[in-house]
UniProtKB/TrEMBL annotation:
Protein name from the UniProt record: Ribosomal RNA small subunit methyltransferase A
Sequence ranges assigned to domain Ribosomal RNA adenine methylase transferase N-terminal in this UniProt record: 25-195
Cleaved signal peptide residues: none
Gene3D superfamilies: Ribosomal RNA adenine dimethylase-like, domain 2, Vaccinia Virus protein VP39
Gene: rsmA
Subcellular location field: Cytoplasm
Positions with a binding annotation for S-adenosyl-L-methionine: N18, L20, G45, E66, D90, N110
Pfam families membership: RrnaAD
Catalytic activity: adenosine(1518)/adenosine(1519) in 16S rRNA + 4 S-adenosyl-L-methionine = N(6)-dimethyladenosine(1518)/N(6)-dimethyladenosine(1519) in 16S rRNA + 4 S-adenosyl-L-homocysteine + 4 H(+)
Protein task: Specifically dimethylates two adjacent adenosines (A1518 and A1519) in the loop of a conserved hairpin near the 3'-end of 16S rRNA in the 30S particle. May play a critical role in biogenesis of 30S subunits.
Ranges annotated as spanning the membrane: none
Matching InterPro entries: KsgA/Erm (IPR001737), rRNA_Ade_diMease-like_C (IPR023165), rRNA_Ade_methylase_Trfase_N (IPR020598), rRNA_adenine_dimethylase (IPR011530), SAM-dependent_MTases_sf (IPR029063)
Family to which this protein belongs: Belongs to the class I-like SAM-binding methyltransferase superfamily. rRNA adenine N(6)-methyltransferase family. RsmA subfamily.
UniProt keyword annotations, A-Z: Cytoplasm, Methyltransferase, RNA-binding, rRNA processing, S-adenosyl-L-methionine, Transferase
Amino acid sequence: MTQEWLEGHRARKRFGQNFLHDHHWIERIARAIDPKPGDELIEIGPGQAALTREVIALAGRQTAVEIDRDLAAFLRTQFPDGSLELIEADALTLDWSTVLEGKRLRVFGNLPYNISSPLLFALLPAAHRIIDQHFMLQKEVVDRMIAAPGSKTYGRLSVMLQYRYVMHKLFDVPPGAFTPAPKVTSSIVRMVPKPEGKLLPVDWNVFSALVAAAFQQRRKTMRNAISDFLDEEGFSEAGVPSTARAETLDVEAFVRLANAAARRRQGA
């Protein structure tokens, strides 16, 4: 496949494709990732290989997950030396616990805006084997990921990801850096999983369900929002006022609530 074919390849809306083309931003993102030889790098959605080429130039090789069959075929012609190992699959349904099994991963990519939040949740179970993640996402999503309690953007995504990762927004990327240009600004976020030994103990299933219920109707008090999980005595046990609203509570408070709920279920 030729460069002429590539230029004729139209971004597919169903895959949320916006291709990075501005070399200034490609280099800046690659420097932020800081790939090195020996790293087990895996890119989600390499697209037309703009960032892929830069990372391979620095690290020597990488793996990539691509859902678009035409782009996967193109990518195979561009790296005949074996420097790119391609997994042709949907990153959203991939079993991330078995990808490059036994290896510690460094994950990066320009995530499709239409599946960014579900994909971040899909990666959570594999966090124990990930060194770091560098993603380009819609600025609004990154702002929600790093939001502090009390802010309008603080929500379920903030709590669930902040429990598991230390996150930093690095910089914004303008729409003009892409083809086609999206209608929104993008941001680069660095996500470093917290050591498992430093995670607050919690029943993950209860925690996840409770946090989702708490933010389902933000204007409700916690007493009303999570009444299926805890009664007034349970709130007292957790040390959280039942009159509080979800957006005012930090991650630790949600962990205490989930633990109180789990104990009550076990005792029921």
